[in-house]
Amino acid sequence: MAYDFDRRIPRNGTGSLKWDFISLPGERCFWDETDPSKHARPVLPLWVADMDFPAPQEVVEAVTERARQGIYGYAIPTDAYYDAVISWMARRQGWQIEREWICLTAGVVPALHMLVSTYVKPGEKVLIQPPVYYPFYRAIENNDAVVVLNPLIYENGRYRMDFDDLARKCADPAVKMAILCSPHNPVGRVWTRDELRRFGEICLTHDVLVVSDEVHGDLIFGDVSFTPYASLGGAFSDRAVVCTAPSKTFNLAGLQSSNLIIPHPELRAVYRKTLQRNGFYTLNAFGLLAAETAYRHGEAWLTQVLAYIEENYHCLTAFLSTHLPMLKPVPLEGTYLAWIDCRALGLDADALERLMLEEARVYLDEGYIFGPEGEGFERINLACPRSLLIEALERIKTAVDALKR
Ligand SMILES: Cc1ncc(COP(=O)(O)O)c(C=O)c1O
Fold first, then answer.
1. Residue bearing the CA closest to ligand 1, atom 13
2. Which strand ranges, in their side-by-side order, compose the sheet holding 328-329?
3. Chain region(s) in the chain for CATH 3.40.640.10
4. How far apart are CA 202 and CA 179, in angstroms?
5. Per-residue pLDDT tens for 166-216?
6. Any idea which fold 17-55+299-404 has?
7. CA of 215 to the centre of ligand 1 (A)
8. Which of 151, 238, 249, 325 is the most exposed place for a label (fewest CB within 10 A)?
9. What is the per-residue pLDDT for 7?
């Protein structure tokens, strides 16, 4: 079937994190459209990574039918679930995995926290590559481990890894783990095979465990190709944990279903112990069903949604180059999150945030939340109806024009 991604579906008042919650500078509150004393005009939310599109029709139907049965007892992953995951990874990502490698978790972020608690002792160190998805910092710090930064290099409008710095940082014996964001949120890079190999070789030399967060691994554009880190095989795969999920791919984040893939049996056994220690024995019945159905029947939907998002990105770049040439979008290879260099506006982080939120009245993810390396950048979620994106861009243009006057 052909999907209509142009349709604007109201989400306010549904307990949606994206639409009902807003963080204001210095204040966190629930968005209340009905309180005119607080806000003159509703804010358009293009921040957190969920889509304003319904999931594939097959998923909606499967979940609805299951809901109608009315019995919501404990669920277990079936053979069909495992087959769907294995087949998806082979078909879409060219990686043949084995059933026993799969460890189910209720979300990648909780899994990252448990991975740090499993493999890293308090006081030991974990390396990340800012600007990067901010829960990485939390997963490390909440487990009393120490964040080590290996910032990405931004040069000629493109991001790359700093391998010399990586080697220096990994040489510290206290560094036990590196969390790779692949594809990278927020900079939109899809790491090449060569980059992954160089990254992996340095980690292997210093016996640093690689946790590769590949939650955006199905959201790839143009002729870019995605390589799952552990598909490099051999020692790379033996010292790796891959985090994957249908949540970003099919917009199922609220159903909290994800998979860790841990090829090495000993590494896996230690992680399973952590799951048991924390009492994680069962998962959400709707999450399992939605994941299986999406992996089995969602490919046509994914093709269409990727084409729509890619067109949104073209729409964004065309709008910026015509109306706001001082805002420079970074090339988008993967994820549906565009990263925009706004430094030419000459505003500090606080003033830029106020401009977007209070003048333009759009809610984006401020670059600084991904680390100081992100200051002066904005992250904008492209997985929305085009008219909403254009409305947000028009608002930004009006606010920037007023700034110039
Ligand atoms: C890199 C990355 N990892 C993990 C997540 C969230 O995963 P989950 O919803 O499964 O916790 C996100 C969501 O934006 C993300 O960008």
1. 49
2. 328-329, 337-341, 377-381, 365-366
3. 57-297
4. 13
5. 999 999 999 999 999 999 999 999 999 999 999 999 999 999 999 999 999
6. Aspartate Aminotransferase, domain 1 (3.90.1150)
7. 6
8. 325
9. 97
Q: How far is the CA of 211 from the centre of ligand 1 (A)?
A: 13
**Full DSSP string of 60-84:** HHHHHHHHHH-----B---HHHHHH
Query: How confident is residue 379, by pLDDT bands cut at 50, 70 and 90?
Result: very high
Provide CATH 3.90.1150.10 ranges for the chain: 17-55+299-404
Give pTM, 2 decimals.
0.96
Q: Which residues of 193-228 are buried (b: 16+ CB within 10 A; e: fewer)?
A: eebbebbbebbbebebbbbbbbbbbbbbbeeeebbb
**Residue 41's pLDDT is what?**
62
**Binning pLDDT at 50, 70 and 90, where does residue 30 land?**
very low
**pLDDT tens-digit series, residues 77-89:** 999 999 999 999 9
pLDDT at 14: 87
Residues 92, 296: contact at Cβ < 8 Å? no
In this structure, the residues whose C-beta lies within 6 A of any atom of ligand 1 are 49, 107-109, 133, 181, 185, 213, 215, 245, 247, 253, 258
Tell whether omega for the bond before 183 is within 30 degrees of 0, i.e. cis.
Answer: yes
> What distance in Å separates the CA atoms of residue 301 and residue 3, rounded to the nearest whole number?
7
Q: What is the DSSP letter of 344?
A: G
Q: Say whether pLDDT at 245 is over 90.
A: yes
Mutational pocket test of ligand 1: of 47, 132, 215, 336, the residue with most ligand atoms within 8 Å of the beta carbon: 215
Q: Could you give the 3-state DSSP secondary structure of residue 125?
A: strand
Domain made up of 57-297: CATH architecture: 3-Layer(aba) Sandwich (3.40)
Spacing, Cα 108 to ligand 1 middle (Å): 6
Q: Give the pLDDT confidence score for residue 23 in this predicted structure.
A: 52
Q: How far apart are the first and last CA of the chain?
A: 49
- Closest Cα to atom 7, ligand 1: which residue? 108
Rounded distance from Cα 101 to ligand 1 centre (Å): 21
